[in-house]
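note to self — DONT lose this again. spent like an hour looking for the file last time. sequence + predicted structure for the chain T wanted, 132 res
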Amino acid sequence: MHASGTFEVKMIPQPAEDGVGDASIGRMALDKQYHGDLAAIGNGQMLALRTAVEGSAGYVALERVSGTLHGRSGAFALQHSGTMTRGAPQLIISVVPDSGSDELQGLAGTLAITITGGQHFYEFEYTLPAVD
């Protein structure tokens, strides 16, 4: 199945924990609002690192999404893994296996993001068991 739409995201910098980890790794709270076929809110945490080479970086994130997907309500988790190599992006966002709840139990799939003119768009390819 296919879902598409737009979303807004707020990335809120989080303070480094004293004496824990590496201060060059940034930590952000994610606050998202999805519109379209997926009408939901997303909340999560992101870790990111920029290298000394312009345009090269990496990030990972986990996000909990709650709302409706084509009218079926529930929640699920997304796992993000992104790299940028001298400006060339590569991004994989997958549904965490067995993270779907309520009417979204059994959800699996991948989500793609594009940004055009400052607007965020998603394309979500997924499978979901039939409703009994």
